[in-house]
Amino acid sequence: MWSGSWKQKQLEESLNKAYSDGIREALDQFNEYNFVITDPFLMDHPIVYASEGFLKMTGYSRGEVLGRNSRFLQGPDTDRRSVLEIREAIRREKSCQVSILNYKKDGSSFCNFLHLAPVFSKDEGRVIHFIGVQTPIQKCCRLCTSTDVENDIRKQHEPSASANINANASNHLIYFGSCRRELCRDFSGDLGHIRLHNSFTEDDHKGRVVKHACEAKESDKQKALAAISCVMSELAHFSKYIGKSVSDIRCDSADRVRVSPISSSSLTIALNRIQQSFVLVDPHLPDMPIVHASNSFLQLTGYSRDEVLGNNCRILQGQDTNQEDISKIRQSIEAEQPCTVRILNYRKDGNPFWNLLHTAPVRNASGKVAFYVGVQLDVTGMEDNHSDKGMTSQMKQLGAVGAVRVAVRSLLGAGPSR
């Protein structure tokens, strides 16, 4: 788990490393807009900036918002299909506009027109932030016959409709007889399984259906678009002060070798959920650079993410590192086999620590090696058979490797293998 100070540091660095000083003050001037900025590369995709308008709209303080995933705005009557549409947009790194029922801190609900937009780094060719603009809109309700709902449900379960459920989903809860039905997805384990949930409620309108629809006007959409444009312009302006550049469009340079092939936000989010110190390296790039480093790894070693990505793992080696251990790791990589060694490594400040390192190949959906994962465990001053709450070191490391493999196979597809 993160400590409070470490989490705060990560939230601050999310904006500080991408934009120059003064970005927060510049964003504060847009107090008429309700928006947040989130970072998909931090654990649980947290909010790293919240506007004053957003805080007034929801009733939360800035301290209650920063560091949290935006799901705290959801409630019992939030349409899960709208949530799925948002998640799909994040996974595909696309913009989306969706009307959704959200909840304020006091528990009252409001209809929210959400405009979500990715922010791409032109230098890295990947998304670094998302802008989420919220616009309160009117909620309307209407009654219809149960026959209409039966037809609606039947259409949703036809094969052709199921394949495009996100595109055709309407933003309402369906009350049929005494049974409320919501179509939602269980995302446990990073693998989705669509399920139909029924919750029995009292309903005085037997045979009738109440449809709650959040419908945005064209003026609401234009206001949200203007907010996105203003915020994006400010981010682009302040990124140039530190020699970087951001855009609302992905920009891949043909003559630039990308440091990280992990451009998928969904894969990054899945990897960030793994609360273990580990790195992924790409064996298909020169010098096998690190292409993903977990937050726990950064805590363990003292390095920042920018100092790690693109470098070989030898940055952890020092004058007393045993070369036989290094040779054992190299041989296992050549044989595409797992390996466990107890090796002396060094933190950024020069202090040594004993690292129980487990390395293993990570194959993509086609069965070819896409990455190698290295899971670190600080065993300085511990017994070789150290266990934590009944779980041995080997079990913890194998669990992390398994989680990485599931994420890569399910979300990377054929991936960057050769």
Describe the 3D structure.
The chain is an alpha+beta fold. The chain has 2 domains: 172 residues, Beta-Lactamase; 138 residues, 2-Layer Sandwich (Beta-Lactamase). 33% of the residues lie in helices and 28% in strands. The chain is built from 14 helices and 18 strands. Strands 1, 2, 3, 4, 5 and 11 form a 6-stranded antiparallel β-sheet that branches. Strands 13-12-16-15-14 form a 5-stranded antiparallel β-sheet, with helices on both faces. Strands 7-8-9 form a 3-stranded antiparallel β-sheet. It is elongated, with a radius of gyration of 24 Å. InterPro entries: PAC, PAS, PAS-assoc_C, PAS-like_dom_sf. Keywords: Chromophore, Flavoprotein, FMN, Photoreceptor protein, Receptor, Sensory transduction.
The largest sheet is:
6 strands, antiparallel
Measured distance between first and last alpha carbons: 36 Å
Number of DSSP strand runs: 18
Tell me the CATH superfamily of the largest domain. Answer: PAS domain
According to CATH, what is the topology of the largest domain? Beta-Lactamase
* Shape annotation: elongated
Helix content: 25-40%
Give the name of the CATH architecture of the largest domain. 2-Layer Sandwich
Q: Total domains, how many?
A: 2
Mean pLDDT: 78
Q: Segments where pLDDT lies below 50 for 5+ residues?
A: 142-149, 159-211, 253-261, 414-418
Number of helices: 14
Oligomer: single chain
Main CATH class of the largest domain: Alpha Beta
Structural class: alpha+beta
What fraction of the residues are assigned to beta strands by DSSP?
A: 25-35%
| Gyration radius from CA atoms, angstroms | 24 Å
